[in-house]
Amino acid sequence: MPPGLACARVEAAGKSMNINVKSVVMPHSRDFLQGGGQMGQAIRAMDWSQTPLGVPENWPGALKTCLGIMLSSSQPMWVWWGPQLINFYNDAYLPIIGDKHPGALGRPARQVWCEIWHQIEGRIGAAMRGESTYSEAELLVMHRNGYDEETYYTFSFSPVPDADGSVGGIICANTNDTDRVIGARRLALLREIASRTWDADCVAQAYTLAARALSADPRDLPFALLYRLDGTGTHASLAAACGIEAGHAAAPPACALDQARPWPVGEVIRTGRARVVSNLSERLGELPKGPWNDAPHEAVLLPLAVGADSAPRGVLVLAANPYRRRDEAFDNFAVLVARQIASAIVNVEAFEAEHERAKAADVLALEIEHRRRIEQHQNRLLDEMNHRVKNTLATVQSIAVQTLKGVDEGARDSFIARLFALSSQHDLLTMDNWEGASLEGVLRLALRPWREEDHARVALEGPAVHLDPKRALALGMAFHELATNAARHGALSNAEGHVRASWTAGPTLLRFRWQECGGPRVDTPTRRGFGLRLIEHGLARELSGKVRMIFDPKGFICEWEMVLP
After folding, report:
1. Has residue 40 been placed in a domain?
2. Is-contact 85 110, C-beta < 8 A?
3. Beta strands at 314-319 and 224-229: parallel, antiparallel or unpaired
4. What CA–CA distance (Å, rounded) separates 145 from 149?
5. pLDDT at 352
6. What phi and psi values does residue 142 have, to the nearest 5 degrees?
């Protein structure tokens, strides 16, 4: 007899005897679903007899355990169970699943996340074969609030064994990295604009360099236009563009200030305020998509002015990311972009005007004075940046020491050691005004704690190689991880081992080799820790090169190569 029919007959019999049967039949069979907030209540209220899982009283113990963990967790989590991967999730996951709730509960995961299934299907299959996977800040274009949305999540797929030893389902914890990734990307663009436009020798070049900088962030800005007011006061000319060809319907060579099409440039100039233009495809036809599958729907026009009371030099047109709803954060970011470009233009204008006034007197002296001011300004900015970086690192170190008091000492010490290593590399770059550092200097600094004990145990061989700041920081952290690993597990963990670091440099290629000898026997690790992941993946990405790690029983070897600028 089906369990549901049996319960119904018992309940009917109980009513005839005035007995509360619900308090008698399987009194604690759903205790594992107690609590859990909104989702705990939703799971309890759902008629599971209409799903492939059947009633909760018959669910396997592994599923009950997973749901108990999930519902009590403050971390966004989901559980997929059974051959059809029936979907469960907790309260913390509700912002992630969006408008798919409540219909997503109890449905097969393939139906719930059909838009990203092609991207994760391979990892899902691996998890159902018993293999765990981990993804960090991965781009997922989700359709959860009525539109395709750019998101970034760190998540792991962990297989859950059933009673018979097979994999019954998957449990996953999530971290939303979207704001962090997009915020870092926008901050990088602002730095790129400042860095590129600093070298402009004339106003026209400032516009061109600004457009090149804007092309570094096509996800936020699929295309951008820079219109410059001409001398007539009736038109604005296209000074530069990125992501779109000049002459396109959306990028005409000039815009009349008394017309609203294709862009209301005149309105932005007169009011000095930003203007949003919507329905771009209807207005302008087919548009460039940048890295996305859809063209932008909106664009923001902003005056190129250094402040609200300043006269605009032109207008900046920024196409908005079609996979992010335009919000206050984007609007503020767009204002910062426009003001930074305007500042570069005004600075070049001021220099050009000064240069013209002094040309008849002493052009050479004026040039020297201008360059001296630039160097002073650069030095002030560099000093301020170094001061803030050191204060920030010191604050992070202090927070880490206080926050990690109760955790594993090894993990805490490793984290703090990495902070000190990063701080040391910043100090090295500061000594050379952040113009870079030598490869040998970066290596010696990372190995200093171990070279001081016995210089003969570490040998360095290679020609002089200059590294830019980005590569110096990346290699400094990698060398720290190599040295720390050698001290804990490798050649520097005993009294006999030694390390040889050697490199060769050709016209365009650098090859580096780290080789350990005389240490304990080396076995291939079953899992990659943070240090190995940093070297194997992070280093390859930062250097745009190739990294190879060899776990030779006689000694660990790490080789990599990178293209020199």
Report:
1. yes
2. yes
3. antiparallel
4. 8
5. 77
6. -100, 150
SS (H, E, C) 198-236: CCCCCHHHHHHHHHHHHCCCCCCCCCEEEEEECCCCCEE
Cα 537 from Cα 547, distance rounded (Å): 8
Per-residue pLDDT tens digits for 493-550 = 888 888 899 999 888 888 889 999 998 998 888 877 777 777 777 777 777 778 888 8
Closest CA to 532 of 563, 558, 562: 558
The pLDDT of residue 479 is: 81
**Closest alpha carbon to 250 in 280, 217, 214, 290:** 280
Please give the radius of gyration of the chain, using alpha carbons only, rounded to the nearest integer: 31
Distance in angstroms (rounded) separating the CA atoms of residues 155 and 326? 26
The letter for the amino acid at 451 is R
Confidence of residue 447 (pLDDT cuts 50, 70, 90): confident
Are the CB atoms for 233 and 254 separated by under 8 Å?
no
Considering the domain architecture, whether residues 153 and 197 belong to the same structural domain is answered as no
Say if residues 532 and 558 touch (Cβ distance below 8 Å).
Answer: no
User: pLDDT value at position 84?
Assistant: 96
Task: Judge whether 490 and 555 are in contact, CB under 8 Å.
Answer: yes
Q: Highest mean pLDDT: which of 156-165, 372-381, 449-458? A: 156-165
Would 401 be classed as within a structural domain? no
Other beta carbons within 10 angstroms of residue 493's beta carbon come to 14
Provide the 10 A C-beta neighbour count for residue 525.
11
pLDDT greater at residue 5 or residue 411: 411
Average pLDDT over residues 161-176: 95
C-alpha separations of 92 from 99, 145, 174, 286, 433 in Å: 14, 17, 10, 40, 46
Strands (DSSP E) contained in 110-187 are 133-143, 148-161, 167-176
* Residues 153 and 204 occupy one common structural domain: no
Query: Model pTM?
Result: 0.59
Residue written as token pair 């990295």: 177
Looking at the structure, tell me whether residues 348 and 426 fall in a common domain.
no
Q: What is the pLDDT of residues 272-296, one digit of tens each?
A: 999 999 999 999 999 999 999 999 9
| Pairing label, strands 133-143, 314-319 | unpaired
Domain final position from 142, 176, 210 = 176
Residue range of the domain that includes 538: 408-563
Q: Is the pLDDT of residue 182 over 80?
A: yes
> Tokens in use for 259?
């017309």
556 pLDDT exceeds 80? Answer: yes
One domain for residues 443 and 528: yes
CATH (domain of 529): 3.30.565.10
Residue 388 lies in a domain: no
Q: What is the CATH number of the domain that holds 146?
A: 3.30.450.20
Q: What is the DSSP letter of 320?
A: P
Do 132 and 271 lie in one domain? The reply is: no
Residues 233 and 349 occupy one common structural domain = yes
Whether residue 165 is found in the same domain as residue 211: no
Average pLDDT, the chain: 83
Does residue 312 contact residue 303 with C-beta atoms inside 8 Å?
yes
Strands ordered across the beta sheet of 77-81: 86-89, 77-81, 167-176, 148-161, 133-143
How many domains are there within the chain? 4
* One domain for residues 151 and 232: no
Domain stop point among 316, 333, 355 = 355
In a domain, 384, yes or no: no
